[in-house]
């Protein structure tokens, strides 16, 4: 791997911007592959455009994130600014580098959107966006080319697996009683937590080279790295259960008709996202953030509530306020 990292560092250094404006451009592009961006996109789609497409996008995002977290913990590869003191970290990242989550999400999640649009231009757009986001992650000093390539591959494989298996699985469970479907999706959420946890349990926390830790601390003195954290796995599990359980309950009440004028759709999004932010920031401030079991459980609850609000709580509020049919 040393030869790959040496070559990758040279390419990263060549891509790193000399001006603040260009760095801002790369940061803006990088946002389009960010999990936080997609967690805003999910409610926008669900409340305002197409709930079914939102469910598809949300599931692919969460599955992608689980795969990415498991591979990061298994491969334990450095980021360029850990490996080389010459590389500048132009954005803060504390997890392992390979594979690139942004590259993986760009292919997987934007690809899921493209399946809903079903037009050649949409897939062409996904290809262009994947290249630009991949370049942005290298230019920002947080990924080697190998990280990006593996991210693209895993994103494509995750999307393909979802498109091949999601409908057959749904056909097998759709006629089950609601409590059975809720139990199954709860078990699925636990699997999403368990996969990265088992990878870490089997492989253990390996000793990282001292130079990686020194370079990371020098590049980001106020943002210590936390590469062995399982917070993301817990976040995914809680969000999955809340979102899917909410959607199942909502569909027992006729689903959600998102038609209406654009001002009405915009109002839905503003009202709904305010509660998302309150749950995310408010409970985040109240709940502990350490690595204990209790903190993990509370994190699961926090993100379950966020997912449930998006898929069930907010639509009920919109009905009461007359913002949906």
From TrEMBL:
Q: What is the lineage of its organism?
A: Bacteria, Bacillati, Chloroflexota, Chloroflexia, Chloroflexales
UniProt xrefs under SUPFAM superfamilies: Acid phosphatase/Vanadium-dependent haloperoxidase
Tell me the protein's name. Answer: Phosphatase PAP2 family protein
UniProt xrefs under InterPro entries: PAP2/HPO, PAP2/HPO_sf
Cite the SMART domains for this sequence: acidPPc
Q: Which residues cross the membrane?
A: 39-63, 121-144, 150-170, 182-203, 233-254, 266-288, 300-318
Q: Does the keyword Ribonucleoprotein apply?
A: no
The record ties this protein, via Pfam families, to: PAP2 (PF01569)
Tell me where in this chain the Phosphatidic acid phosphatase type 2/haloperoxidase domain is found. Answer: 52-163
PANTHER family xref list = AT30094P, SPHINGOSINE-1-PHOSPHATE PHOSPHOHYDROLASE
Keywords, ordered alphabetically: Membrane, Transmembrane, Transmembrane helix
Q: Which Gene3D superfamilies match?
A: Phosphatidic acid phosphatase type 2/haloperoxidase
| Superkingdom of origin organism | Bacteria
